[in-house]
Design goal:
Length: 195
């Protein structure tokens, strides 16, 4: 009986005086809402990342500016779903990341609790995808045009990852002379499909 009373009182105490916790509200945006806010919705492939000196002022974060790094990522545009007609061959997107700072060996250089949801793009080492048929990552991007002609995430710089969705199936760049003879297989995995 005594242990039940102590457990009850502990529960009441924790309910009445919850421990402090940091959290920020991050709204969920459906594809429809992202597309409605976007100037450009496209399937893109990262080509090149380049650091730039843009100010992190739009981030509205209390951390010092030295904690952030601005990046211009150049993308090849494969398909435009909304916006820019005719389809641009390439676009530049401004986004931010946390700056890499040297720290003690074996430890993270900068620990962020409840921080931004920045997006990072891996760029393939070779741009000979047309001749090698190598797999390259593709992204569904929801973007808005900036006054300087570049694009940025429609969800803002601080949670830019919400505007980019990596496509599960990869883009294969294959020249017509590299295609096999005869019809292409409908189900290359060999697994039976459910109906």
């Amino acid at each position: 009986m005594k242990s039940k009373l102590i457990a009850f009182l502990a529960g009441v105490f924790l309910w009445a005086f919850p421990p402090p916790a940091e959290a920020r509200y991050k709204p969920f945006l459906s594809y429809e809402r992202l597309a409605a806010r976007a100037d450009l919705v496209a399937v893109v492939e990262p080509v090149r990342n380049q650091f730039t000196k843009d100010s992190p002022a739009p981030l509205r974060d209390p951390r010092p500016a030295a904690d952030f790094q601005a990046i211009n990522t150049r993308f090849a545009v494969h398909w435009v779903i909304k916006g820019a007609r005719p389809r641009p061959r390439e676009i530049t997107v401004l986004h931010f990341s946390y700056a890499k700072r040297p720290g003690p060996p074996g430890e993270p250089s900068l620990v962020i609790v409840n921080g931004a949801d920045f997006v990072e793009f891996a760029v393939t080492a070779s741009r000979n995808a047309e001749s090698t048929g190598e797999r390259t990552p593709a992204w569904l991007a929801f973007l808005r045009r900036r006054a300087d002609g570049r694009f940025e995430a429609v969800t803002g710089q601080y949670d830019s990852a919400d505007s980019f969705h990596r496509l599960d199936s990869q883009i294969y760049v294959v020249q017509p002379d590299q295609l096999p003879e005869g019809p292409l297989p409908v189900n290359p995995s060999g697994r039976k499909r459910r109906r």
